[in-house]
Structures are given as structure tokens and as C-alpha cells.
Model the fold of this input.
Amino acid sequence: MSTLPAATALIAERAKEAGPVLWLTGAGISAESGIPTFRGEEGYWKVGSKNYRPQDMATSAAFSVMPDEVWSWYLYRRGVCRGAEPNAAHRALVDLEQAIGDRFQLVTQNVDGLHQRAGTERVFAIHGNIDQMRPVGGVECVAIPEGVPTQWPRGRTLTDAERALLEVGGRPARPHVLWFDECYDEERFRFESSLRAAASASLLVVVGTTGATNLPMQIGMLCAKRGTPSIVVNPEPNPFSEMVEHTGAGLFLEGTAGEWVPALCEAMADAYRA
Ligand code: APR
Done:
């Protein structure tokens, strides 16, 4: 397990290279804001007498057979996210971006909108945003209308009036979230932009992810192939820390986002400031 002085030395060395520092965040950076990852017991969703896992609900197949139940689940999760506040790690990233501008880029898997609400602007939200919706089969993303309550008790069903609000251009709308049976693209999820950022990055920082999804792993592998070091922050080892161990390119900082991100941002603001 590495230390802050080692990370600070690596940051100083990498800041001399061209290219941005690329941050890649997962649900772990929002854990200290109180947003559960829905992978545990609290993630189950009852429809009738059946229990569904997130992997069952977050699919276009589920939406095609039970759209109201899928909307109800997302509106419940939207309420949980709206009830949470950005934490010290989110705020430190805002300060870093303000200090180093275009030398900062963030890719997030999180749909909770906390990076955006904290004020980060250079964000590629590669799995969408729970506060937005788009027409079924369409790309035009709009905010879920104010007339749809943000507090949504578990199991509450849609009223006819609310169902009528969940339309875009007269067409039924769906949550703007990448589902497990769908693919990334540039228009909705910034696929190519994220890989371009990885191809030009001077340093990759990965915070709070199990590395279970495709594009984040492609980003990690592209950086490893280019010899771009990674700083990995996580309470336990993950595929990114194993990649660092295998390649020797970077550091694994075992612990939480709150313990490490503010200090890393401070070191980067000094080293990467133009
Ligand atoms: N600080 C940093 N990391 C943390 C913290 C914390 N306080 N608490 C937990 N973690 C770590 C866990 O150890 C785990 O590695 O955060 C990670 C959360 O993993 P997941 O819940 O799998 O979240 P994530 O990797 O972002 O999931 C990827 O899968 O569910 C789909 O599309 C969804 O974006 C999501 C994607």
C-alpha cells in the first residue's frame, strides 16, 4: 500500500508530461454521501411477489414489459440521490478543476449527478444521469419535469398525470441511464471522447469502483498499454489496483475517497497549475 509522499512525487513527475489528469470515478466516491450502491439487500425491488435485482430492473427488456415499475424504481433512486449532498471528495475535484482548467478531465460511472451538482464541468457521464430522461429510442436528453415529485417512496406507483409528464415530444420517455443490455455510444454516453481522454492522459486516477463495466476497464487498459501510470483509491483491491501491481505503473492507495481525494487534489493543483 502506498503513501501520500509517494503519490505526490508521482504527480509532480507526471505533471511535466503533456496531457490532462484523467479522473475515473465509481459509486464509491458517493458512498460517503450516503448513496448505497444497490448491490446489497437494499437493492432488491419487489414487483408483486417477485424480488428483482438491479441487474434485472436496469434493462430495456424489463422496461419493455413493465415500464411503470422500472420508472417507479428509478424515481425512488432519484429521490435517494436528490436527498444526498456532494461530499469532500466531490468538492475537492471542483477546486482542482478550477485550478488547472483543461488539464483536468473526469469520467464518471455515477448517475447520481453529485459531481455536476458540486460544480464540476468537464464531466463525461458515461452511464447517464438519473435526473434526465429521453424518448424511447431517441437521443434528446431533458430533465425529468418538476411535476414529477423528487421524493418517491419505495413502491409508489405513477399517477396518470405523472405518466403523461414522462414524455418527450409526445413520445413515451425512459430514464437516461445506460442499461445492462445496451451499448455505449458517443452521442449519449461520450464513448469516443472518454477513450480519447485516456489516449492523451498524463495520469489516470481511479476512485471507488469494482471495475465491473466495460468502458472503465478499456480506459484502464489503454492507459496501461501507453505506460500512463494510475493512482487507484479504493478500500479494497480491485482490477485497477491489480493492473498497477502487475505493470508497476502507478500506486494503490487503500482507503476511502474522503481519506485520499482531497490530499491528491491539493498536490495536483500545485503540480498541474499552468
Ligand atoms: N470510498 C471509495 N471507494 C469506496 C467507498 C468509499 N468510501 N466505499 C466503497 N467503495 C468502493 C467499493 O469497495 C467498490 O469497489 O466502491 C466500489 C463500488 O463498486 P460498485 O458498487 O460496483 O460501483 P461501480 O464500480 O461504480 O459500478 C459500476 O455498475 O451498477 C452498475 O452502471 C452501474 O455505474 C455502475 C456500474
